[in-house]
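Lab meeting notes turned into a lecture example. A postdoc, R.K., suggested we walk through two folding results consecutively so the class can see how the record format repeats. The first protein's sequence and structure tokens come next.
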Amino acid sequence: MTPHFQVWKKSFAMWATAMSTCLSTQTFAQTGVTDLLSNKSANDLFRHYQNSRPSPSEGQQLLIGVLNKKLPVNDENLRAVRASLAKARGREDKILLIRVLASMYTPGDRSPQNLLIENDIKGLVDSADLGIAREAALEYSRLGYPLDRYQVLKRAHAAKVLGDDAYYGELAHGLRLSSPADQSEMLRELEKAHNQFANEILATTFGVPRLLGQLNRAHQEDVLRLLLDHEPGFPMAIDSFGLVDSVRYALWINAVATIDSMLSGKPYARVIIRRLSSPSTDPRKILAVFSNPEGNRVLKETTDISTLYQLLERTQGYSYSLPQNATVTSAVALFSSQLRALGATQNKP
């Protein structure tokens, strides 16, 4: 055995020992964090995060555990979280600490503690780190909708901290809880934006009568007009009938019918059937309604069985042109079975 080989062998043995020790330490640390996450309270996890100097990945696991277990809101915890956020250097830690701080906010309460939380998070909207600034803007937007929420969002959008989807989506989310003056301005922005993501949020939100009731009549009319101007469609390929497009259309027509019914007093089912009965209506829109819960409501609330059968026949004609499309065939079969279940076959014209 040459001297060079002996040196190499000794060096390799030292490296292997060091690696083994390192891996053992990592495994021990990982096991320790896992045990903490399983057995300790949010308070314990946060104290461990503060005092143990964990590695970045371990620290993030601990903070996620704190979020999941919900840190109790008291002055001591608030001081500790604010202090950790102020001195945190890593982006991921800072983002998670913003979330922890936001989780300690009590909506509707103008307490000194809430004001501190608002100020800390709002201050980070101007961070030079766009990831941190974006997280702060979104969390601030959802803090029970503070009075200057709209202005903070506009500033973040103008600074390109928030992209169009995030910005207009937040406007749509918070519309019902904003002041009437802000609602008017936000609706004007949303009308000009033509943002599909925001329009989907409006449809999902204001298809619920209780939430729609948080807008005054004029703003209900504005939302209805905005939705009618942005009716979702289906792909140009006539054989394309996907779940996402189907649900999107069903949510849209539900919102339109809900708002129209509240404003005009017309029955919900009649509004939907009338829209679907137009000769120019894509048969996939009919299938979208009757493949989703909105269709069940229409079937329960209408007595216009003859029109329902006309709609069924149109979807059957569409299905016959696509004999290999199992999704369309199944949707038509479901619609047909729903009519039979109502006993509607006896009234078929």
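The second example is placed directly after the first for contrast:
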Amino acid sequence: MLLLVVWIAVVVLAVVVLAALAHGLLGALQRLNRERQALDRELRPVLAEFRAAAARAAPPGDPAR
């Protein structure tokens, strides 16, 4: 009987630890996604300027446009 109680306690503890790890991992993924979105918002105007400058610098008949 005591062994059954110990195994139940071990399983419950393992579930709690796994839940805490999953919570931390999901939080980190959400933070990473917010950082990626912020970087995208910051770089989008720079990329547009770069493309405009490249288009102005390219020769008129350049097929790479």
